[in-house]
Amino acid sequence: MQDNEEIEQGADGNEIVNESVKDGTHLEVQSEDIKEASAVIAADRKGNRESNEESISERKDVIQSESLAFNDKRKSTEESEEKENISISDSSKDVKGVRQQAQESRPDLSYLFVNGPDKFLTATNVKMQEGNLVGFDNLAPFSKKDENGTELKPTIEDAQKAKQRLYKEFFQKSFKNLLILSGAGSSIDVGLPLMKDLWKKVKEKITEPIFIELCKKINHNTVNDFEALISRLEGVIQYGGDAEINNRKLSDYREDILKVIREETAVEEPKGDFPHVKILEKLLQRKQTSSRVKVFTLNYDLLFEKAANKMNAVIIDGFSFTSPRTFSGRFFDYDIVLREGSKVNEEDNFITRVFHLYKLHGSLNWHREKESGNIIIDDCTKTPLMVYPREGKYKDSYGQPFFEMIARFQRNLRERNDTLLICIGYSFNDNHINAAIEEAINQNPGFRMAVIDPYLVYAHNSGSEAYKSVIRSAIKSDRIMVVSERFKDFANYYPEIQTYDNELRLQPINLRNEGQ
Questions:
Q1: Which of 17, 54, 203, 492 is the most buried (most CB within 10 A)?
Q2: Are strands 419-424 and 447-452 parallel, antiparallel or unpaired?
């Protein structure tokens, strides 16, 4: 991780880094900071020499990199530059390199926001509760004084405002191609159970003694990991036979597990405006000349469909407009225009409040007909078409309609015309999704990405390797932004872009006379 020790020092006292990130200017590192950083590095070297001579040899390259910030005569090794993909050209960037090394040795220091080397917000000893920031020690960059000029300790409200100001600035730009990737974290705020709660439900369904015996039978010992559990169970059934436990076959227990997943992910529509409604209200204000907003979701629930119904929006989801609604990829190429007075205008008048919805892992209301093989919308189906969490899910993705959905995802990420992908509640654990994003980051210069995740503060220690790579890239490049924020708060604070077409929103009215 990068860009933190220098900030930490500033939060503690003398060095003041003002809130220049607000107007986009670069943070400046004062000479006193360089002296202080130099003293820290020197002390660190001395301690290493006294404790273990071998550690000096092992950290040779690190010490050479650190010394660049204070000795213009030394040259950085080309091998180190190539490995980190960082171009070092001035002393301020050298100090940022020192800050990176210092942060990597400070597991108590976390990012609340980062968008390149010059825009960041960090805190130490962060405490979270249900996705909310409830405590921390130091915040940087931060400087606030009372009327007597005394430095004030930052509050949680200060941290929230600083973070929201930074990401609202990022989203002020109007992107031509706007994509949303929605993971499990986007539905937790409205009732989707956490993995540990889902695991508990499965144990209750099967009963704990039998569940323990089942795990022993298939040699599964990882808690809260449905992908590994289902994969091992299916592997034993396929290659070892459908054995019995307590007079029931392994395939019966497999169906019990899948049934719990289906039932528990069927999130009911929340009362009032939930985050999906609020974010769509803002995103669908885009200019009619821009491409349609495209929502790609990994969730099975119907929250985006319910949000669209609540706000009178139209969904293009790959299904026909006739009954039964039948899937065909060609329907994604359709759009809806307004023809005034049945006359064909010279220019298409695209209606507002239309977006594309791609359900990459299936849906609770998708059903495959046995005779025809057609995929239809059936709200009462008992056998929904879904890609369940197991190792074979990547193979499942090559069948229709999933192959069509993934292909559309890849195609949109390749759009070189100013593309933004907003990842909400996605933990970067799906390799086929990660591969498409990785290609876009590496090959598409017009691609930008924003990651919204309340548990970003822990990701640099406990996140997946892919997630850690995203954070490292965000530290070095302003093309990637990551912020620790819950979906419901992000939906509230996402800016309403003034350049969008802000049509009057429909307001419900009740004209019924009471008692009649």
A1: 17
A2: parallel
Distance CA 311, CA 314 (A): 9
Average pLDDT value for the chain: 79
Q: Dihedral through CA 162, CA 165, CA 167, CA 169, nearest 10?
A: -140
Q: Encoding tokens for residue 361?
A: 């892992």
How many angstroms separate the CA atoms of 494 and 139, rounded?
23
Per-residue pLDDT reduced to its tens digit, 232-284: 999 999 888 999 999 999 999 999 999 999 999 888 888 888 999 999 999 99
Q: Domains of the chain: which residue ranges?
A: 5-170, 177-191+270-493, 195-264
DSSP-assigned beta bridge partners for residue 480:
449
SS3 content of the chain, % helix, strand, coil (to 5): 40, 15, 45
More confident residue, 472 or 20: 472
DSSP code for 151: B
Question: For the segment 380-404, what is each residue's pLDDT rounded down to a tens digit?
Answer: 998 899 988 876 666 666 678 999 9
pLDDT value at 13 more than 50: no
- CATH architecture type of domain 177-191+270-493: 3-Layer(aba) Sandwich (3.40)
Q: Residue 107, preceding bond cis, omega within 30 degrees? A: no
What secondary structure does DSSP assign to 454-511, as a single string?
TTHHHHHHHS-HHHHHHHHHHHH-TTEEEE---HHHHHHHS---TTS--PPPP-----
Specify the pLDDT at position 65: 45
Sign of CA dihedral 57, 61, 66, 67: positive
User: Model-level pTM?
Assistant: 0.74
DSSP class of residue 447 equals E
| Rounded distance between C-alpha atoms, residue 394 and residue 433, angstroms | 10
120-124 and 139-140 strand pairing: antiparallel
- Asked whether the predicted pLDDT for residue 72 surpasses 60, the reply is no
